[in-house]
Amino acid sequence: MEIKWIEDFIALAQHQSFSRAAELRNVTQSGLSRRIQALEQWIGAELIDRSTYPPTLTPAGRLFLEAAEDIVGKLFDTRAIIRSEQRMPGTGLQIAAGHALSVGFVPDWLQSLQSRFSGLRVRIVPTNVHDSILMLVNGNCELMLAYEHPDLPLHLDATRYPHLTVGRDVFLPVCAPSQRSTPSFRLPGTPGRPLPLIGYSATTYFARCLHLLLHRASKNPALVPHFESDMADVLKKLALNGEGIAWLPRSLIEAELASGTLVAAGDRTWQLDLQLRLYRDRNNDMPLLKDLWEYLESRTEA
């Protein structure tokens, strides 16, 4: 038995409509019906009288509704207590962000907010895109910051989870320089001398970005996988060590590009422009969150 079955049942009991309850629960009507049936099978009795319109509760359904509302209420109250204990003392925000963003973009971005929100308390949770989205949807953070490209959308419901574009970045190939300060490896390479690729694990967002970029390339690059990791920081270190070419967000390597310890390994055709999007849950009415969002809306593009 899953808690979402109980939440589905409560929504159906409140609205007496499979279509309306399915809409509110962000599931198809057939999916909601299957979950109600699964709950009935687990209980061992019919909870919904489907012979009437609108559907009503059976005696077993009325009995279970009272317990269901009490159970869900206690669970969410307990979750709220636990979450508050895990947060920093006082009023603050929890932001889920990709590892590269947490290191490269977030510190300067937060500093830019201090003039308007002095003493702003923030906890940054570095994580992957999938877990960031789960944190936002499950209410475990107030804001989610993620890279996004128009051809690689995150598919969040815009009516529930609005976003702001708070910055832009460039995903570009870099490598360590040679003794003459030229790139040790230069795209596109040749079949006879393929370039060592320091790549991303297939399940990461940056792996999707790289696949899109190479798919669009006018020339087929000669690349041979050399190392692989989930984290851009690891790729950056390997590139600094001269192990090959790595595609990295510019915000993560500004200092290295300026000092010349990393250099571009290809021209502009091998780069991908990315948006930095900030998401929130419209149903979260925290005053600090609303004030911050309104301020950001006034100075950024939606």
From TrEMBL:
One of its GO terms (molecular function) is transcription cis-regulatory region binding. It comes from the Bacteria. Pfam families: HTH_1, LysR_substrate. Keywords: DNA-binding, Transcription, Transcription regulation. The keyword Transcription applies. CDD domains: PBP2_LTTR_substrate (cd05466). Belongs to the LysR transcriptional regulatory family. PANTHER family: HTH-TYPE TRANSCRIPTIONAL REGULATOR, HTH-TYPE TRANSCRIPTIONAL REGULATOR YJIE. This is Transcriptional regulator, LysR family. It comes from Paraburkholderia phenazinium.
